[in-house]
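Quick one: Transcriptional regulator WhiB from Nocardioides panaciterrulae, structure tokens please.
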Amino acid sequence: MTISVLDRTDGTAEAPSLGVLHDEASRVDDELLPCRANNPELWFAESPADVEHAKALCQGCPVQALCLDGALERREPWGVWGGELFLQGVVIPRKRPRGRPRKNEAAA
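--- reply ---
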């Protein structure tokens, strides 16, 4: 199974490539895949709101489970894969905003 981000020298993100998946997934039209139909940089965004939006778009994806399984197997270093956020190869619940955390978490 191959779903990967291509390493680009210009620093831009590229949508996950379906490559060779199971027979059923290889017949899926690219336009049905949120990571192909939307800006690919959304899946590698800095903004917590953008990351949550990417995770929400993944919920209706026909290859969500395959994408997530592949990302777990490869220990993807970062980004949204299969509706989950990865950082250093593990799933994390949410992306924290930049800067110091607030003293009072309820104020966030």
